[in-house]
Design goal:
Function: Catalyzes the formation of acetyl phosphate from acetate and ATP. Can also catalyze the reverse reaction.
InterPro entries: Ac/propionate_kinase (IPR004372), Aliphatic_acid_kin_short-chain (IPR000890), Aliphatic_acid_kinase_CS (IPR023865), ATPase_NBD (IPR043129)
CATH class of the largest domain: Alpha Beta
Helix content: 25-40%
Shape: globular
Strand content: 15-25%
Number of strands: 14
Pathway: Metabolic intermediate biosynthesis; acetyl-CoA biosynthesis; acetyl-CoA from acetate: step 1/2
Family: Belongs to the acetokinase family.
Protein name: Acetate kinase
CATH topology of the largest domain: Nucleotidyltransferase, domain 5
């Protein structure tokens, strides 16, 4: 048994889980909200116990807080019990095609591509540095969201720009949420009792950030996010697909002070928040939709964009064995799933209204005669990170034990 720590660093929060591997038993789940530097909210969930909240005013890094809690609740007695640490990294560009052990040379490469995910990668790097300082002898593994999408064919990842922009600047579709899409695809295969290599899946990661992937034979062949996590679906505060000339027009008419303000609005003030003019939270928007036309419009636009991509990927795959809903919205919002599913009936995809409202995850709410299963599967990026970290250190240890001839 080895204890593996999974770290998912965001711009204002951090999720940490400690697993016993290879049993995949979650020993603790910790959330650190450090948006308020003077009063950090930290919650810990232990097996079969209610969520416990702590407030810290002392200046501790998020990983320090997590280790302090793990010791407080006797999950570990000392940090050296942790055999490996896996870190979620949003963007790996074309430099990183798979999960890899973190070295000083690798860190230099990683920091060189911060621009690919400016809201996420710097926070991911900070989480790595924090863990390295606190557990200097512990193997650290980087798990890239973009890695799952590295098998996209050129016709799917290239933009119709002069090829020199790809050759010189590597401007292309990279995608995101690959760790989540990969996890739920594997879970879907288990649920359907089929080999993943024989399945055609459309996976829908719908949360604050949202993306859809077409998966064939276990590999991503197209995905909605592009060069950055900004494009594709309409999201909580991100705009999704926008005609670039509209942005040039707005810049010329001084709607934005400069390009930095433009990017801030596209990332933080657009999407559901921008259209509803009420909230970034789909739950609040749906509550307001009956009395607020802008909120109702935001829901309609969100559903339409999802269905646009499902239609495209249905053609890309030549049909699909299953559609998989995951993420905060995908897993919990039965009304949103119903709105999407109603528009899929023309494809011969039919759903059960009552089953769609089940709370017993995972489940399939398609009818017996539906042309595709409709699965709701909770994602677990931290478990996927732990799997990769454990597999890498185990493979390395086995190679060291192999006799040299």
């Amino acid at each position: 048994m080895k204890k593996v720590l999974s770290i998912n660093s965001g711009s204002s929060s951090l999720k940490i889980s400690l697993f016993s591997m290879p049993q995949e038993e979650r020993l603790a789940k910790i959330m650190v909200d450090y948006a308020d530097e003077n009063n950090q909210l930290v919650t810990i969930k232990l097996p079969d116990q209610a969520l416990i909240a702590h407030h810290y005013t002392e200046k501790l890094t998020p990983v320090e807080l997590a280790l302090k809690l793990l010791k407080k609740y006797k999950i570990i007695t000392q940090a050296t019990e942790i055999a490996a640490i896996g870190h979620r990294i949003v963007a790996g560009g074309e430099l990183f095609h798979c999960s890899t052990e973190i070295t000083p040379a690798m860190m230099i490469k990683l920091e060189s591509i911060n621009e690919l995910a400016p809201l996420h990668n710097p926070a991911n790097v900070a989480g790595i540095r924090d863990a390295q300082n606190l557990l200097p002898g512990c193997p650290q593994i980087a798990v890239f969201d973009t890695a799952f999408h590295t098998d996209l064919p050129p016709e799917n990842f290239l933009y119709a720009l002069p090829m020199e922009y790809y050759r010189k600047y590597k401007v292309r579709k990279y995608g995101a949420h690959g760790t989540s899409h990969r996890f739920v695809a594997q879970q879907a295969a288990k649920l359907l009792q089929r080999s993943l290599t024989d399945l055609k899946l459309i996976t829908l990661h719908l949360g604050s950030g949202a993306s859809i992937s077409a998966i064939k034979n276990g590999k991503s062949c197209d995905t909605s996010m592009g060069f950055s996590p900004l494009t594709g679906l309409m999201m909580s505060t991100r705009c999704g697909d926008v005609d670039p000339s509209a942005l040039v027009y707005l810049l010329k008419h001084h709607a934005f002070a400069d390009m930095d303000e433009c990017m801030k609005i596209l990332n933080q003030r657009s999407g559901l928040l921008g259209v509803s003019e009420a909230s970034r939270d789909m739950r609040e928007i749906e509550r307001e939709a009956e009395i607020n036309p802008q909120a109702a419009l935001a829901v309609k636009m969100f559903v339409k964009k999802i269905c646009d991509y499902i239609g495209a990927y249905w053609l890309e795959l030549g049909g699909a064995d299953a559609l998989v809903f995951t993420g905060g919205i995908g897993e919990n919002d039965s009304h949103l799933r119903e709105l999407v599913s109603q528009r899929l009936e023309c494809l011969g995809i039919n759903f059960q209204v009552k089953q769609n409202q089940s709370r017993n995850l995972p489940f399939d709410f398609a009818t017996a005669n539906s042309r595709a299963h409709l699965l709701v599967i909770p994602t677990d990026e931290e478990l996927m990170i732990a799997r990769d970290a454990y597999n890498l250190i185990t493979a390395e240890q086995l190679s060291e034990q192999m006799p040299v001839h």
